[in-house]
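Protein modeling request. Please complete all fields; requests missing the sequence field cannot be processed.
Requester role: graduate student
Desired output: 3D structure, token encoding
Chains: 1
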Amino acid sequence: MPHPNIHIESAGAVTTVTVDRPRRKNACTPAMWAGLRHGFRDIAESSTRAVVLTGAGGDFCAGADVGPQDDTEAAAQAAADQPPRHRIDHMRDIADTVMAIHDCPRPVIAKVDGVAVGAGFGMVLAADMVWCSDRARFSLIFARRGLSLDFGTSWLLPKRIGLHEAKRLAFTGEIIDARRAAQLGIVNEVVPAAELDAAVDAVAATVADGPPLALASSKRYLNNASNISLFQALEAEGLGQVVNFATEDTTEAMQAFVDKREPEFKGC
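Delivered output (268 residues):
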């Protein structure tokens, strides 16, 4: 279901998903998590070739909104959550949101400005690539709130930066800046805030111009790499190439190479 604070807009082959609740630094309610979940499921079945995930108003996402709601939001959330449900059900809904982002067959680029903390940090990690501004800040804030890790951060972060550094961020809840995030390997690139939109537009366009079927396979291989053996990876790659050689896209790419031109992929 659509949500008024989750905007999904497509321009050509690129879809942008924006969490738009700037007065709360884009902190998400249960209904907003549902909006993200359903939005990414729709994107997975669309003709989109690249996805940009971002936040409005100078921040990415301050995680789950645990503060008091105004009357309008409280009523909307209560309506969305009827009938009353146990908290574990809400956590499982959030888990489904993580999976919808992480397993989206289209490459997902997180565009991060301002804060990305708690579950907002988890959203960053669930994306495939991360571009951030030089004023971005990241934190696993959970310990400061008396909470343990969630939004997949216990699984995603060690794979990105290693176990020891992940423990440091988890146990201290420290806030790290963009430079430190780049050093740890959390982000692909740091750019001045004024250049962030252009930088992400450029990389999204490059991804969108690629072969969508082949990129979807490569994404799955890379996501599964730490969970399977080399033999299993080789077998999956072999089967994938057999599928690729039966597509029009691979034929087009080979002909484009001969013709010394850029290929035009159609996703078939």
